[in-house]
Design the sequence.
């Protein structure tokens, strides 16, 4: 560890492979991440499934399209699905399957007064493991109690600290709000209105908790991305636009679309990609950002 | 020395009856929280992906398969067992149904006469959930 900073050492110690998320979770929203805020599913309708398989990719998106032998290898289709799943993450800006993250978020006086309105960099938050005020070298200065953290907007990556108690009227509070709840935060800041790196959150984020529970609509987008890639590849192989044969005064000619052969299907899939990605971002992320700096 | 630079991997096997009767598969579908057995065959990627039969005795061989999770608490490893001493390339793993499989990516550790080799298979286990309406 000789060349590593104290901050790096702290990170390695805290986020090593033996991270027991179950034990460390301080807040999560309900039992279900999708559909958002679902209390209980009747299971009368299928919304989740394992990550799309090569056979499903063909039956859902490439049915009837003649595939060269190379594409009949499951390894090739699996690779395309894996690439498409990575494209999904870049397109939606959300992990497909849960990963563990740690962000440093700014202190903003206006947002602080709005019940410490924090916006995680990765959305949706599935489980919040810690919310701390930390120093620049990563040391924890203060840990916010989990009971104050409001998880209702975790699906949009929003964390609020609302120190309301379940009972009203005790002598230690006025209107259900603990009077001294946030004094330590402000005391460390004095008259500052903004600090670029103040709150530290550790959390898991992803559309699905594991790859056996992918929302079907996300699976469909992964399949759409893979199908566009495959059709584009197939179309480029269809180079001939016209063929004519003649012999002994008899001739036959035919013309075809050439490399445009799957253009209609690809255009439909591209439209579907745009629509699905917008809808999924709307559910799990933010399409617009607003600030007051 | 031959074999030291080989990159091992595995093929998933379905419907294993004996060493002469089985089918290769892309992936295996199992049901969550139900006992299941799945077979695989060791292959050598540096030798045309042919099956790899160790020259060592079964007592000198061991395979451990790790089922990963983002939560360490839900990770677990299981030992694989040689399906038949007649063909040491085919092994199987038994899931007892008490643990959640959180990923279809399997991470293998193969120890052969004290030499350890690691490889993984991508997306080979599909765990069908009985809760299909939400996740």
Sequence:
């Amino acid at each position: 560890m000789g060349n590593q900073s104290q901050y790096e050492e702290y990170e390695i110690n805290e986020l090593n492979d033996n991270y027991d998320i179950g034990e460390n979770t301080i807040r999560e929203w309900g039992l279900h991440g999708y559909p958002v805020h679902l209390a209980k599913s009747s299971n009368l309708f299928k919304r989740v499934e394992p990550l799309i398989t090569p056979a499903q990719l063909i039956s859902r998106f490439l049915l009837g399209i003649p595939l060269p032998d190379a594409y009949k290898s499951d390894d090739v289709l699996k690779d395309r699905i894996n690439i498409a799943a990575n494209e999904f993450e870049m397109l939606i800006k959300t992990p497909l399957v849960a990963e563990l993250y740690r962000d440093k978020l700014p202190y903003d006086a206006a947002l602080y007064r709005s019940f410490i309105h924090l916006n995680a960099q990765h959305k949706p938050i599935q489980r919040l493991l810690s919310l701390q005020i930390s120093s620049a070298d990563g040391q924890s200065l203060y840990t916010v109690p989990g009971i104050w953290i409001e998880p209702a907007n975790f699906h949009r990556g929003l964390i609020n600290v609302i120190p309301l108690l379940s009972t009203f009227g005790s002598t230690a509070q006025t209107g259900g709000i603990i009077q001294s709840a946030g004094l330590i935060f402000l005391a460390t800041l004095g008259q500052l209105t903004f600090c670029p790196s103040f709150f530290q959150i550790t959390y898991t984020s992803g559309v699905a908790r594991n790859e056996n529970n992918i929302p079907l609509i996300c699976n469909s987008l992964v399949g759409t991305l893979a199908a566009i890639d495959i059709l584009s590849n197939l179309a480029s192989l269809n180079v001939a636009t016209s063929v004519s044969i003649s012999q002994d005064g008899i001739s036959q000619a035919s013309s075809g679309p050439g490399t445009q052969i799957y253009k209609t299907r690809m255009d439909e899939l591209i439209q579907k990609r745009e629509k699905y990605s917008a809808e999924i971002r709307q559910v799990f992320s933010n399409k617009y950002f607003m600030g007051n700096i | 020395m031959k074999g030291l630079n080989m990159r091992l991997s595995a093929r998933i096997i379905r419907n294993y009856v004996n060493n002469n009767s089985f089918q290769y598969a892309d992936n295996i579908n199992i049901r969550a929280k139900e006992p299941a057995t799945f077979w695989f065959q060791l292959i050598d990627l540096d030798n045309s992906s042919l099956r790899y039969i160790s020259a060592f005795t079964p007592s000198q061989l061991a395979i451990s398969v790790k089922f990963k999770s983002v939560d360490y608490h839900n990770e677990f490893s299981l030992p694989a067992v040689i399906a038949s001493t007649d063909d040491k390339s085919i092994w199987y793993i038994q899931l007892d149904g008490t643990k959640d499989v959180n990923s279809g990516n399997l991470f293998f550790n193969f120890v052969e006469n004290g030499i350890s080799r690691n490889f993984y298979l991508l997306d080979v286990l599909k765990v069908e959930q009985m809760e299909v309406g939400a996740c």
Notes: Helices of chain A lie at 6-14, 21-24, 54-61, 74-92, 109-113, 183-189, 216-237, 263-284. The longest helix of chain A spans residues 216-237.
